[in-house]
Structures are given as C-alpha cells and as structure tokens.
Amino acid sequence: MYLPAQFKAKERRHALDVVRAYPFASLISVDDDGFPFVTHIPLHLEPVDEADDSAPIVLLGHVAKPNPHWRYLRDRPPALVSFLGPHAYMSPKVYPDLARVPTWNYLSVDCKVQATLIDEPEAKDRLLKKLIGDHEPPYAQQWRDLGPEFASKMLMGIVAFELRVTQLDCKLKLNQHRPEAHAAMRAAYALGTENERALGEWMDKLGLQSKASSEQAQ
Q: How confident is the model at residue 216 (pLDDT cuts 50, 70, 90)?
C-alpha cells in the first residue's frame, strides 16, 4: 500500500488490534490468467506474543470448495490479505482557515502471506471452532450436537488454509500531520456515526488530541 511515514503505525500491536476488531478481510491472489482474484472472508488471528516483534503472525480461514481461490493458493502460495478498519469523510471545517480540502480518514492493514492448505478433517474442525469462538461461542455446542455425519459433510464442502504473515503494513490515517485540526476532528467524531466514533477512539489511543494541546501550549 501507499504508506507515508506520518501514517505508518509505530507499534505492531496497533495492526493486530485492527485485525482483531475488523476480521472481515479481502484475500487477494493471482488467478490462472494472471489477474487479481479476490475473496471476502472472515479470518481468525492466532494468538501472538505482542512483546516480541519477531513472533510469527498466523491467520486461519476457509473458502467453499467450488470457489477456485483455494487452487490459486495451492499453486501460488504467496498472497495478500487486506483488512479495512473504520473509515469516514472529514470536512475541511475542522481547520482554522479556509484554504483546505476534504479528506478521508481510515485504518487499514495489509499482510503479505504464505498459504498452506489444511486437508485433515480434525484440523479443519478445530479451525471452524476457532472462528465460532471469535463470533458466536455458544454456537459451538449446536455444531457438536449436529453429529459427526453432518459435520463430515460440511467439512467436505470447504477448503481450509493457514496464512503465515511474511510482511505486515498498518496505515493509521488520522491527519497526524495536521495537529491544528485535531480538537475539532475529535469533537466531530464524538457526535458522528459508529465509524466516526471508532476513529475518535483511535485518536485517543494515539494521543493525537493531547499532542495537539501540548504543541499549542508551547
């Protein structure tokens, strides 16, 4: 992705926070004609040692067997995974002067990955239970109660995979380089949509409003 220095996440944990909070990803590979092929799916982030920046990052997911994407992953394991966090329009009204233009603020994470298919039924079942645990833990009992014959049939209809992250890029575009706008931005986001309120919370997490107040006081 295009990643100006002022928007590049300084801490890996911020990228992991975005992935956990917004797990519905775009998985992008190259098809047999050399054209990008995209599947939109939820991915499970395996536990990561956040204190160790060299600790491996692994994502788990699956596609329906009729989806050719699994064959592209098998034949060409390098792929790209893109996560989009909260995003929203920002009016130039937040600036103290008129010679400004609108912008769009957003959080995004791009992962270069190396794919490995998961064929063993028990491993696929464990993967599904991890996704269930992410989104609806009580459903795990219902899944078990459906019985082994039903589960086997469902597992045969999917292809699961592990995506090992080889490069992680996180963009936190929150007008970091325009501190004169931060106080008005934060106030506007506090009264806005769910996405706007989430961006405001990220401004707090990055200390943008406090940095702006400090600079104005100097």
A: very low
pLDDT in tens, 33-46: 999 999 999 999 99
Q: Note the pTM of the prediction, 2 decimals.
A: 0.93
Which residues make Cβ contacts (< 8 Å) with residue 144, sequence separation at least 6? none
60-101 pLDDT, tens per residue? 999 999 999 999 999 999 999 999 999 999 999 999 999 999
Helices (H), the chain: 12-21, 69-75, 121-135, 139-145, 148-156, 182-190, 194-205, 208-217
* Secondary structure (3-state) at 60: strand
Alpha-carbon gap, residue 62 to 203, rounded angstroms = 34
Rounded to whole angstroms, the Cα distance separating 202 from 197 reads: 9
Domains defined for the chain, CATH in brackets: 5-177 (2.30.110.10)
